[in-house]
Structures are given as structure tokens and as C-alpha cells.
Specification:
The complex is a heterotrimer of chains A (179), B (283) and C (798).
Chain A (H helix, E strand, L loop, with lengths): L1 H5 L1 H5 L4 E7 L2 E7 L5 H8 L18 E4 L2 E4 L12 E3 L13 H8 L9 H14 L5 H8 L10 H10 L14
Parallel strand pairs in A: 1-5
Antiparallel strand pairs in A: 1-2, 3-4, 3-5
Helix pairs in contact in A: 4-7
Chain B lengths: L6 E3 L4 H10 L4 E4 L5 H6 L7 E4 L9 E3 L3 E5 L4 H5 L2 H6 L2 H6 L5 H6 L2 H7 L5 H9 L2 E6 L2 E6 H4 E3 L2 E2 L6 E8 L6 E7 L9 E7 L5 E6 L9 H8 L3 H11 L10 H28 L1
Parallel strand pairs in B: 1-3, 2-3
Antiparallel strand pairs in B: 4-5, 5-10, 6-7, 6-10, 8-9, 11-12, 12-13
Helix pairs in contact in B: 10-11, 11-12
Chain C lengths: L7 H5 L16 E7 L5 E7 L1 H5 L3 E6 H7 L20 E2 L5 E7 L2 H8 L3 E6 L6 H6 L14 E9 L2 H7 L2 E9 L11 E7 L4 E6 L7 H9 L6 E5 L14 H14 L3 E4 L2 H7 L5 E10 L5 E13 L8 H4 L13 E10 L13 H19 L3 H8 L8 E2 L5 E2 L4 H12 L1 H13 L3 E15 L10 H5 L9 E7 L5 E5 L8 H13 L6 E4 L2 E2 L16 H27 L7 E4 L2 E4 L2 E7 H10 L13 E6 L16 E15 L6 E11 L6 H21 L29 E5 L17 H18 L13 H14 L1
Parallel strand pairs in C: 1-12, 10-11, 14-15, 20-21, 28-29
Antiparallel strand pairs in C: 1-5, 2-4, 2-6, 3-5, 7-15, 8-13, 9-10, 9-12, 11-22, 13-14, 16-17, 18-27, 19-20, 19-26, 23-24, 24-25, 27-28
Helix pairs in contact in C: 7-8, 11-20, 13-14, 16-17, 17-18, 19-20
The chains are: A alpha+beta (179), B alpha+beta (283), C alpha+beta (798).
The structure holds flavin-adenine dinucleotide (FAD) and FE2/S2 (inorganic) cluster (2 copies).
Chain lengths: 179, 283, 798
């Protein structure tokens, strides 16, 4: 019925449209139909393979990106929602592969990655945490990162890496604890 | 796991949103933070011909202190509410309950109103809204109305909201100075939906308000338990709340277990709220 | 700044190459798989016409096509229960592949799934392995087999009857071990390209071996094995044994490509992964232990029902037999009786999962050891001490044929008790109990087998049956080293790592062997069966790297050096035995001025063959396949050294149970490991921590759950509960390092270790906590609901 009323205008709602967004400081334009997941758009259409997909229902966190400065699951957004947005993916964290951020370095030093599949999401989510809270406690790190699954490391080394990058002994002001 | 095709609409005003919702009534669904809707779409457990993305409507992202209540606009994210000074001051139970909702990244995008509109019986915020006797503001083609929490939640993922209505605001009654409060939850893991969750506010006038999730097809207020709690009989409060609950068994917990946990968690929540109230009175 | 591992830079910057990141061939189309919604159903008809009519759809492949185009997968089964890559006549578990749509993209392919009409006739289902065998009314999954028993073997070692006759005390428990899997964060992925012009099939996948599955796939597809090419990328997002079971999909997507005429890509989604990839088996068992009054174990009997699901997929029945050599754990008893049923039910299929068979084994063994100690009023630590294999007994031959290489088990126990302050813990527990708190302390010990002997799989056959076959043995791993004319080194490993830092470790040890800087060495991981060296056992599984993988790399490097030494000696006009290698230079002993640099020796091999010593081939390209002489076929008494090195772990944990909610809190966990020489403590610690969390998941959170009718309940990560940052208790590890005499560096595997003992340890600790109430934990996972139910029962009985 709706179709009869509005005719081909209607069809346009389903069609692919051009999406313009800035990813890691660079402007991209690409076509996407409304249902295209932002994670697929980033990986397939923009060819940025660093963002990983582990569940496509928001639980594992591998696909986490910074969307207008805030961490977000790219598998729970549509590419069309990114039109005009500023996105940062793991590829955009270091200035170059030779000049890593402190967080990336401490991930390596603390052996906070094994297979590395969860790592992009871990780094993005820890980057967001540290920009909001530069010296978190151990417990704050765990709570902030709890939505990111890692099946290899068992997490401890990741906590250590985030604390090391934060210059924090993990105790915070009042002796925060593993809770 | 890819969603079925849909037509995508991005209204720029509330009026426009309501207009498209009523034009496609029944075929269109509001997309807010997407943290509940998109997983369902990806699993193809549900599909809609149209999604009405409200994220580009400018005047829905607010947290305002009003006479008697805290007004949360449809686009206020969990995380902003959690970090808001108004919320901490006027209704500290809300940020406390939000700690139990998923994880920070989910809360960064998920909205308070979305949690309410989704009406998951295991979700924390509907229980809280119910406990406090809050309400929601709905706008549709036939105008604007305010619905009390208790009339709003109808059943599992079902509300009194009409297909052409937009939930524009949730209203959480303020906790008067000198109140005590607590949110207690039992979940398999941190961040999971509750097996059972209990919101409790102990008000300065001596009354106690309770809201329970995970124990019925809708969040509920165990009225008899509130009376017992106000009289300081915590065990009885727990027992009465359990008697009023009608949970189902599922993978994570049996009905008997849930009922027993309603009793324990009500007890714990009331005790904790009363202790805090006392602390407030002294402090 | 230097990074800790060579793998890290690419992985930290988003430049890894995982399967889904590869550019393979042009014009790749995408597959989606239609799966059975029913646990057990006859497929009467499939009508794909509507799907085929959809724009963008290339083809729909069904079981009928697959049965025409391929053969069932070969297996160790005496009775064939045909297993194809798509259901042919019946669906036997929820999630079993029924049809494949090939379309222009994945979105369209999924759209088309909804348009396929399948006419199912639903059949009754059975999910419990014991019931599937003993209940005469249980539905039969494979009519041609006529029973749900896929395989039944009785194994007898020593004189178990006599042991039980002599026993002062016998304890017997019925136990249930749940079905769970390590669910790597990267799911399965396959790209297959059939080349009709050359009749070759190239398959890219994140398969991590063993490459014994290569001939299995070639046979199923009926193509010559040298026309089938497997390519594996350098990065795999976790495996834990699960991806070993990807091979039916290699065949399936290969067929889809052949059928549709286009290259086809399929990336498993998480729902598919949870319902139908692979997991460990669930096991129902009865374990019985005979002991003397002083706690000496005299013998053990086990009756086992292992649930392999709807079909028998090799390397099953590894769950039952892979640990055979270490069935006695760290104990010196010699009498054992095993009655093992491998059973079909309407659940998803199983395979290797971190610890393959050992978590099940130690859950049984360690539970009854604790119950025996309790019955005798002895301390569980003391009972274990009395039974440990003494240090002087190594290498130790177990009654089941295992040859334990080395270990100091008692030192592990001492270290454990001291590190955890066992006496202090017991005092604390006594105090807590006085206050009504339910605090418990649990132990679990285990022998951690690494480097599977390919020979163990033949235990599935009886000795008579084995006589009619060719034997299998060995545990080979190969390495290839090339040194170019400038002395730069490229190493190809065949271990298809999934995060275990093989590139880093191989580079480090080859640099040490060759006496050159690490930066001069590039290590290539991944695999290409058409161009790289590989053999049947290649790959990563059964914690092979730290024993056989690194041994192979080091020995290959030594062969390289030996060749360069000969070249240098010839050049220096000295006898090779007079030439020494110091700081990257070959030099004549006693005349250091007569020397030749490593790179110059290499340069001669490439630029100047005329200057090579007689009989020396030009170039430096050395492949060495390393195996273990201890990996022999089973003997006539069903004894087999099922693995080649054996570590040991002694675990202890402290738990508290919330009386009101039934929640279990693991307050602290201690583990002492003797895994031979530890090559890198940071990496070893990472492996232990990771395997600890997998064990924790199995003990408390993770389960692939079904209802009684076979419906699958845990198809999302909201229901299949992986531990997160907040569920992981503090773990303290210590090491006792007894070098293995069987490996080149004295090292052994460690990657599976903690997974094997954690479930038993937590079960024992929770039992200890609930002992005052008479409650025992004989099934996992210990969920709050379960514990609360036990508490209620105990209360109503009291
Ligand atoms: C990993 C994970 C863990 C989670 N854990 C929890 C948890 O522990 N507890 C919990 O409560 N939730 C949890 N959630 C769900 C989360 O809280 C959702 O964000 C929230 O339930 C929905 O808010 P949203 O803004 O994302 O709504 P959406 O997903 O956009 O919408 C949800 C539903 O509400 C409707 N809707 C939304 N806004 C409006 C509006 N303004 N007017 C009319 N209809 C509207 C939509 O049409 C849809 O039907 C979890 C989610 C994830 C992915
Ligand atoms: S892929 Fe997005 S959260 Fe898992
Ligand atoms: S390092 Fe493999 S999933 Fe985290």
C-alpha cells in the first residue's frame, strides 16, 4: 500500500547510496545499501581489514571502532549511519607501523596478544578508556574492557598492558583491587 | 548473520519521525542505539520493512532536571546518563543500575529510552522505572501522552506503545534528600542480563519502593513486600516478593531458583538501601 | 622500540593476514549454508527452485548432489555410518548442513536460504550418550549400523580384578562431563576455487592441521591428492584444536565451487560456529578406584560413554584414546580396566578441543582420588604424594604404554603446598567453617601429554583388526631453511600457528644456532601444500611446538651450519673437524686469522659452485623432517605411547560458595608446572593463563546445551558464556624444570596444560566446601542454579 502512494521514491529507500566518511583522517566515499553492516563496509568496501568480526551480535568486541570519538561495535551499526562520521580503526592508532603508540608497545611487551584477533578491539577500547581516565585502577580496566572477549590470553596480560601504558600501578587513589 | 533488506529513513525532526512511523505503521521500527535491535536483525529473528533511524534528530539528546523527575531524552545514551551530574544528584539509583547494563562500549551507544522501549523482562532499567513509579512520554500521530511504567510494560518485549509512537522521554522520579537506594543483581557473568535484579529506594517518609526484573514477563513492583520492608521486616519482604513473582525456567536458571533469588535479593537490596539511608541521615 | 614478538607489529597495527583478509582469486562468490532446525529428521524432499530463481543466486547444492559428487569421509570406524559434508537422507543434529547457496554476496545468499523448501519428517531424538546405548527405545541414528554404539572397546592392563579383590577400600562415582569448545574468536573460513581447465582444487582456509586431513579430503572428493592444494594464511585467530575439524567444510565449499563453476567463499558465523563447528565430547562415566588403607591406589576401572554427536568425524575417537598412554595420570598404579563406548546422539560433532580427552580423564580420576582420601580420613595432598611416580623412575613406562620422559612430580607438590601456604589455607578454612562459611580447597594433578603419536588412532581397532592394516607411527614436523647469497635467512615452518608465537621462537633459536642476528632471519608461517614441505602430522595440535616443532627447527639449523662448515673448511683448506664456528665466522682452530664469514660461505654455495667441496650440492636449502623414535604403533596388548613428551601439573584452588545464591567464587588458583625446560617464561605464562581460562569456562560457564528433545539452547554468545575480564580469578604459577631427554632443547608442550586439570580442581574444591553438607560435585559446569539445588536437597534431607 505504501508503495502505491509514493511509487519509486519508495524504492530509493532500499537502494545503495553514497556514504562519505572520514576514516583515520582520510575521506572515503563508497556505495552501500541500507542493510550493509558498518563492519562489512569498513572491511570490504574500504578494504581496511584490521577491524575484525567475531560474533556479529555485539558480544565479542573484536569489531570495536571509534565512532565520532566514542567506542562502538561496528557490527551493530549500518554503513548508512556512518555518513558524515569520523571513524578511527586500529589502522589509525599508530602514526605508522614503525611508530606505535605507547599502548601498542605495552601490549607487545606484556604479551597481551597471542593470535591477535581480538587485539584491534582491545586497543580501541583501551584507547577510549585511557583518554577518559588516564590512570585507571586494575578494577576500572577490567570493568571498562569486560565487553571485549579474548579466547587466547586469559586477559591478565591485557590488564597489565593497559596499566603499563597508563603509567599506573593499578592501585589508583585508594588501593583499587581485583574485584 | 546478515540482516534482511530494509528501507532506511532518517527523519530530521520528531514530527517527521512520527509522520513516517504512522505512514508505515506496523512496518517500520525505530532504530536508536541499535544495541538490542541490530543483533535481532542480524540473526534474522526479526525484520522490518523500514527502519526509522532517530539518531539525526537534534533535540532528543538531553538529561534535564524537572519538577519532581529527571527527564531523559530518547537519544541520551546510557553512558551520558551514567556520567551525568544531574543523574548522580537527583536519581543516583539510575547510574547505579546502569553499571549492570552490558558493558561500557554497549552503553556508549545504547539509549536509556531504547532499553525501556525494548521491554526485556530481564533488563535493569524497566525494573527501575517501575520501582520508582516513573513514566514515559509517547508522541504519535494522535498526539502526546504520558504513560506510567506500570501501564506501559505489557509483557515479554511488549509495551503499550503504538506502532506510530515515538518514545521521546523517560521520566525517573527524583529521590528526595535523605533517601537510601540500592540495585542488587545476580547474573551469570558481569554485564549479562539479570537472572534476577532488584531496584530499591528507601524514602525519607519511611516508605520503600521495589522493582524486580527477571521474575515475571514484565518488571514488577511487589507491593506487599514494600509494606513489609517499610516495617523493617526484610525476610518477610523477600518472602512476599518471591510469592508475587511468576518466573520461567530457562537455560541460566530454573523458576524455583529465580523465585528464591527474588527473596534473597529483595532482602539484600532493602538492607543495603536502609543502611545507606541511615548513613545519609547521619552524614 | 623492539617488540617482544615478531608477530606483534602487524597484529597491533591491523596488518595481519587472517583468512577473511586474503585476496585469493578474482570473482569470488559467497556461500551461505542452510542448516537443520531439527535434531533428527528425515529429508523427504528439497525444493530450491524459488532460491534459484532469485537474482544473484548461482547455485544451490544439496545432499543429493554431494552424494553424487563425493564419497563419505574415511574414518576409523569398523562399521560405516556414512558421513558426507551435507546431510543426505537424514539430519542428525540441529545445525547440520542441509544445502549450500552460492550467490553474488553473503547478504543475498542468506536471503536465498529462506526460499529453500525442505520437507522434513521429524523423528524422535536422543542426546544422552548412556541412554542412547542402554535405552532400548532410544531412536537409532544410523540404521545401517543398527545401534548407537559407534565403537566399543575394552582395554585391560595389569590385573584389575586382583587389585579390586585386595582393596581395603573401593570408591565409585558416576560423573558427567559437559560438552564445550574453545570457540576461537576467529571462526572457520574457507575459500575454494575449482579450476576446470586443470582439474585442480585450491582451498584457502584457517585449518591448522594435522595434514592427515588432506588425503581424507582428497579421497572424499575423489581427486588425486596432488591436484588438491591447501593454502593456510600466516595468521589464524585461535584454534585450540577446534579448527582441526574444519575439513568437512573444505570438501563442501570445494564441491560448491565445482558445482557452481565460480570460486566460493564461506565465513562461518558465530551462530553456525556454536551450533555446528566442533567441541569436546560430553562424557558420562563411572569411575571406580581400589585402594589400600594407607591410600595407595591399587587399580582403577572406568566405564565411559563418549558422545561424538550425529556422526563420527576423525580424529575422533581421540577424545577417548588420545590420552591412553597417560590414563594413570601421575600415579604409579599398574592395574586398569577401561570399558569405552563411543556413541552417536543427536548433538553436534566433536573433535580435538584444548586438552583433547584429558579434562574428561582427570575429572574422573581426580574426583575419585579425593573421595578415596576422604573415605580413609587422609589428607588429599598426602594421598597424592603416596602415589606419585618417583623422580628416579623416569623414563617411566605406564601400564597403558606411555613412556613418560622426565619429571619431578614430588617437587611440584612441595612447591605447590609451599606457594599456596597449604597449612595456612586449611587453618583459614577451619576458621571460616566455624563462622558458617562454605570455603573449600581442591587439588587436581595431571600428566600433560604433548606431541601426539599418529599411532594412537589405531587403538580404535582391536589388535586382530590392526594386524590386517598397515601400522601408523611417528610425530613428524618439518622445517625448511634457505640461506641466500648475502647470508640472509628465510625459514619456512609447517606448524600453522594460531597465536603461539612460533615465528618469534623459531627466529630466536635459529639465530642462536646460526650465530647470526635475529633481524637476518625471516620466518614464514602459513602453509601451501603445493609448494611447501609438509607431511601427515604437520600443523599445530597436541602442544607440539615446544617439543617437536622447535626440535625440528634447531636440527635443521644445525644441518645448515654443518653444510656451511664443510664449504668453509674446503675454502680454508682445512679438515672440517679443525674448523670452529665463532661469532658468525668459520675459522681454523688455532689460526683465527684463517676465517670465513657465514655470509661468504653462503655466497659460495650460490655464486661459485666450482669452489664447493666435492659431492656438495650448490645452494643452501635444507629441509629436515624430525620425528620421535618413541612414537611407535600400539602393541598386541593395546599399549601405546600415545604422546611423546609428558609434562606435569599440580593445581590447587581456594573457593567459597555463597550459601544463599549458590554462586561459586574461585578466590585464588595455584598451578605448578613441570614442562621441562621453559623456552620463554612470558610466552609460557600466556599459554598457561589462556588454558586456565578455558578450563575455568568448562568448569563454571561454558556449555553447548541441549534440551532433552535435542533442541540447541546456546546459539549466541549471550547464552554460551565465555569468561570475560571480570570472571578470571588470580592465578599464580610456578615452574619445576626437569629437562626432557627426548627433545633437542629439553622442552615440552605447555599450551594445553591447565585446561586439563582446572575442571577437576574446581570440582574438588567446591566438593570440599560443601563437604559439611554431604554434597559432591560430580557434574559440571557448577552453575549457581545447580549448586543452589544441591543445597536445597541437602537441607531437606537434613
Ligand atoms: C553485549 C550486550 C550486552 C547487553 N547487556 C544488557 C544488560 O545486561 N541489560 C540490559 O538491559 N540490556 C543489555 N543490552 C541491551 C542494551 O542495553 C540495549 O542498548 C538497549 O536494550 C536498547 O537500547 P538501544 O538504544 O540500543 O535501542 P535499539 O536497539 O535501537 O532499540 C531497541 C528497541 O526499542 C525500540 N526503540 C528504541 N528507542 C525507541 C524510541 N525512542 N521510541 C520508540 N521505540 C524505540 C526499537 O524500535 C527496538 O524495538 C546488551 C546489549 C549487548 C549488545
Ligand atoms: S563482531 Fe561486533 S561485537 Fe563481535
Ligand atoms: S589474542 Fe587471540 S583472541 Fe585475543
Amino acid at each position: 500500500m505504501a508503495e502505491m502512494r509514493t511509487g519509486h521514491l519508495e524504492d530509493a529507500l532500499f537502494e545503495a547510496r553514497e556514504i562519505a566518511c572520514t576514516v583515520n583522517g582520510k575521506l572515503y566515499r563508497a556505495m552501500a545499501e541500507p542493510r550493509r553492516l558498518l563492519s562489512d563496509f569498513i572491511r570490504e568496501d574500504l578494504d581496511l581489514k584490521g577491524t575484525h568480526v567475531g560474533c556479529e551480535h555485539g558480544v565479542c568486541g573484536a569489531c570495536t571502532i571509534l565512532f565520532n570519538g566514542q567506542p562502538a561495535r561496528s557490527c551493530l551499526m549500518f554503513a548508512v549511519q556512518a555518513d558524515g562520521a569520523e571513524i578511527v580503526t586500529v589502522e589509525g592508532l599508530a602514526r605508522s607501523p614503525q611508530q606505535l603508540t605507547r599502548l601498542q608497545e605495552s601490549f607487545s611487551q606484556e604479551h597481551a596478544l597471542q593470535c591477535g584477533y581480538c587485539t584491534p578491539g582491545m586497543l580501541i577500547s583501551a584507547t577510549a578508556l585511557l583518554s577518559e581516565n588516564p590512570s585507571p585502577t586494575d578494577s576500572e580496566v577490567r570493568h571498562a574492557m569486560a565487553g571485549q572477549l579474548c579466547r587466547c590470553t586469559g586477559y591478565e596480560q591485557i590488564v597489565r598492558a593497559v596499566l603499563a601504558a597508563a603509567d599506573s600501578d593499578g592501585k589508583g587513589g585508594e588501593g583499587g583491587n581485583h574485584a | 548473520m546478515k540482516p534482511a533488506a530494509f528501507g532506511y529513513l532518517t527523519p530530521r525532526t520528531r514530527e517527521e519521525a512520527i509522520e513516517v512511523l504512522s505512514r508505515y505503521a506496523g512496518d517500520a521500527k525505530v532504530l536508536a542505539g541499535g544495541q538490542s535491535l541490530v543483533p535481532l536483525l542480524n540473526f534474522r529473528l526479526t525484520s522490518f520493512r523500514y527502519l526509522v533511524d532517530i539518531n539525526r534528530i537534534p533535540d532528543l539528546d538531553y538529561i534535564r532536571s524537572e519538577q519532581g523527575y529527571l527527564a531523559i531524552g530518547a537519544l541520551a545514551r546510557h553512558r551520558s546518563v551514567e556520567q551525568s551530574a544531574e543523574a548522580a544528584r537527583e536519581c543516583p539509583l539510575l547510574p547505579e543500575a546502569l553499571q549492570f547494563v552490558g558493558h561500557p562500549v554497549i552503553r556508549q551507544r545504547g539509549t536509556v529510552c531504547g532499553s525501556i522501549a525494548h521491554a526485556d523482562p530481564s533488563a535493569e532499567l524497566p525494573a527501575l522505572l517501575t520501582a520508582l513509579g516513573g513514566s514515559v512520554v509517547l508522541e504519535g500521530s494522535s498526539g502526546r501522552r504520558v504513560a506510567d511504567a506500570e501501564e506501559y510494560f505489557l509483557g515479554y518485549l511488549m509495551t503499550a506503545q503504538q506502532p506510530d509512537e515515538l518514545l521521546v522521554e523517560a521520566r525517573f522520579p527524583k529521590l528526595p534528600n535523605g533517601s537510601g537506594f540500592a540495585f542488587e543483581e545476580l547474573a551469570r557473568r558481569h554485564g549479562d542480563f539479570a537472572i534476577v535484579g532488584v531496584a530499591c529506594a528507601a524514602l525519607p517518609d519511611g516508605s520503600v519502593r521495589l522493582g524486580v526484573c527477571g521474575a515475571n514477563s514484565v518488571p514488577f513492583r511487589p507491593l506487599k513486600a514494600e509494606t513489609a520492608a517499610a516495617q523493617g521486616d526484610l525476610q518477610e519482604a523477600g518472602r512476599l516478593a518471591a510469592a508475587d513473582s511468576d518466573p520461567d525456567s530457562d537455560l541460566h536458571a530454573t523458576a524455583e531458583y529465580r523465585r528464591a533469588m527474588v527473596s534473597k535479593l529483595v532482602e539484600r537490596a532493602v538492607r543495603h538501601a536502609l543502611e545507606r539511608k541511615e548513613g545519609n541521615a547521619r552524614g | 622500540m623492539d617488540l617482544y614478538r615478531v608477530e606483534d607489529r602487524r597484529l597491533l597495527t591491523g596488518h595481519g593476514t587472517f583468512l577473511d583478509d586474503l585476496s585469493t582469486v578474482p570473482n569470488v562468490h559467497h556461500a551461505a549454508i542452510l542448516r537443520s532446525p531439527y535434531p533428527h529428521a528425515r529429508i523427504r524432499n528439497i525444493d530450491a527452485s524459488k532460491a534459484l530463481a532469485m537474482e544473484g543466486v548461482d547455485a544451490v547444492l544439496t545432499g543429493r548432489d554431494v552424494a553424487k559428487m563425493s564419497r563419505p569421509f574415511a574414518s576409523a570406524l569398523p562399521r560405516q555410518a556414512a558421513y558426507y559434508s551435507l546431510a543426505v537422507d537424514k539430519a542428525r543434529f540441529v545445525g547440520e548442513p542441509i544445502a549450500v547457496v552460492v550467490a553474488k554476496d553473503r547478504y543475498l545468499a542468506e536471503d536465498a536460504l529462506a526460499l529453500i523448501d525442505v520437507d522434513y519428517e521429524q523423528l524422535p531424538a536422543v542426546v544422552d550418550p548412556e541412554q542412547a546405548v542402554i535405552d532400548p527405545d532410544a531412536p537409532i541414528l544410523h540404521e545401517d549400523v543398527g545401534t548407537n554404539v559407534a565403537l566399543h572397546r575394552t582395554l585391560r592392563y595389569g590385573d584389575p580384578e586382583e587389585a579390586f579383590r585386595q582393596a581395603d577400600v573401593v570408591v565409585k562415582r558416576r560423573l558427567r562431563f559437559p560438552k564445550y569448545g574453545s570457540t576461537p574468536l576467529e571462526t572457520f573460513g574457507v575459500v575454494a576455487a575449482w579450476n576446470a581447465a586443470e582439474d585442480t582444487l585450491t582451498i584457502w582456509s584457517n585449518f591448522h592441521g594435522p595434514f592427515s586431513m588432506h588425503p581424507v579430503v582428497a579421497q572424499a572428493l575423489g581427486i588425486p591428492s596432488n591436484k588438491l592444494r591447501f593454502i593456510v594464511p600466516g595468521d589464524i585467530g585461535g584454534g585450540f584444536g577446534i579448527k582441526t575439524s574444519i575439513y568437512p567444510y573444505l570438501a563442501l565449499i570445494g564441491l560448491a565451487s565445482r558445482f557452481s563453476g565460480v570460486p566460493v567463499k564461506w565465513i562461518e558465523d558465530r551462530q553456525e560456529n556454536l551450533m555446528a563447528s566442533s567441541s569436546g565430547t560430553d562424557r558420562v562415566s563411572e569411575v571406580e578406584l581400589a585402594a589400600a588403607n594407607d591410600g595407595t591406589i591399587l587399580g582403577v576401572r572406568m566405564k565411559i560413554y563418549d558422545n561424538v554427536g550425529g556422526y563420527f568425524r576423525p580424529p575422533e575417537p581421540g577424545c577417548t584414546f588420545r590420552p591412553l598412554g597417560n590414563y594413570v595420570g601421575g600415579y604409579s598404579f599398574r592395574n586398569l580396566d577401561v570399558d569405552a563406548y563411543i556413541v552417536f546422539t543427536n548433538k553436534s560433532l566433536t573433535g580435538p578441543n584444548r586438552g583433547y580427552g584429558c579434562p574428561h580423564l582427570y575429572f574422573g580420576l581426580e574426583r575419585v582420588v579425593d573421595e578415596m582420601a576422604h573415605k580413609l580420613g587422609l589428607d588429599p595432598a598426602e594421598v597424592r604424594r603416596r602415589n606419585l611416580i618417583p623422580k628416579a623412575a623416569f623414563p617411566y613406562r605406564t601400564p597403558t604404554g606411555g613412556l613418560y620422559d622426565a619429571g619431578d612430580y614430588e617437587a611440584c607438590l612441595d612447591t605447590l603446598l609451599e606457594t599456596a601456604d597449604y597449612e595456612g589455607l586449611r587453618r583459614m578454612q577451619a576458621d571460616a567453617r566455624q563462622h558458617g562459611r562454605l570455603v573449600g580447597i581442591g587439588f587436581a594433578f595431571g600428566v600433560d601429554p604433548s606431541v601426539s603419536n599418529m599411532g594412537y588412532v589405531d587403538i580404535a581397532a582391536t589388535p586382530e583388526e590392526r594386524k590386517r592394516r598397515r601400522p601408523k607411527s611417528g610425530a613428524t614436523q618439518g622445517t625448511t631453511i634457505q640461506v641466500d647469497d648475502l647470508g640472509k635467512v628465510t625459514v619456512e615452518i609447517s606448524t600453522t600457528p594460531q597465536g603461539q608465537s612460533h615465528e618469534t621462537m623459531v627466529r630466536r633459536h635459529i639465530a642462536q644456532e646460526l650465530g647470526i642476528p635475529e633481524v637476518d632471519i625471516t620466518v614464514i608461517s602459513g602453509m601451501d601444500t603445493a609448494t611447501r614441505s609438509w607431511t601427515i602430522p604437520s600443523g599445530s595440535y597436541s602442544s607440539r611446538f615446544a617439543s617437536i616443532g622447535i626440535s625440528s627447527a634447531v636440527v635443521t639449523a644445525r644441518k645448515v651450519l654443518e653444510k656451511l662448515g664443510r664449504i668453509a673448511a674446503h675454502q680454508l683448506e682445512a679438515d672440517p673437524s679443525d674448523v670452529e664456528y665463532v661469532d658468525g665466522n668459520f675459522r681454523v682452530k688455532g689460526a683465527p686469522e684463517r676465517s670465513l664469514a657465514f655470509r661468504h660461505a653462503a655466497g659460495i654455495a650460490h655464486w661459485d659452485p666450482a669452489s664447493l667441496p666435492p659431492g656438495t650440492d650448490p645452494g643452501i636449502y635444507v629441509t629436515h623432517f624430525h620425528t620421535m623414535p618413541t612414537a611407535l604403533p600400539p602393541d598386541d596388548e593395546d599399549r601405546v605411547n600415545s604422546s611423546n613428551t609428558y609434562g606435569f601439573m599440580a593445581d590447587l584452588c581456594l573457593v567459597e560458595v555463597d550459601r544463599e545464591t549458590g554462586e561459586v567464587e574461585v578466590k585464588k588458583y595455584w598451578g605448578v608446572h613441570d614442562s621441562g625446560v621453559i623456552l620463554d617464561h612470558k610466552i609460557a605464562e600466556g599459554q598457561i593463563q589462556g588454558s586456565f581460562v578455558h578450563g575455568l569456562g568448562g568448569a563454571m560457564y561454558e556449555e553447548m546445551a541441549y534440551d532433552e528433545d535435542g533442541a540447541f539452547l546456546t546459539g549466541t554468545f549471550m547464552d554460551y558464556l565465555c569468561p570475560t575480564f571480570l570472571e578470571v580469578p588470580p592465578l599464580e604459577t610456578r615452574y619445576v624444570e626437569t629437562p626432557s631427554p627426548f627433545t633437542v632443547l629439553g622442552s615440552k608442550g605447555i599450551g594445553e596444560s591447565a585446561t586439563e586439570t582446572v575442571p577437576a580442581c574446581i570440582a574438588n574444591a567446591v566438593t570440599d566446601a560443601l563437604r559439611p553438607l554431604g554434597i559432591e560435585v560430580n557434574e559440571l559446569p557448577v552453575t549457581p542454579t545447580k549448586v543452589w539445588n544441591w543445597l536445597q536437597q541437602a537441607q531437606s534431607e537434613a
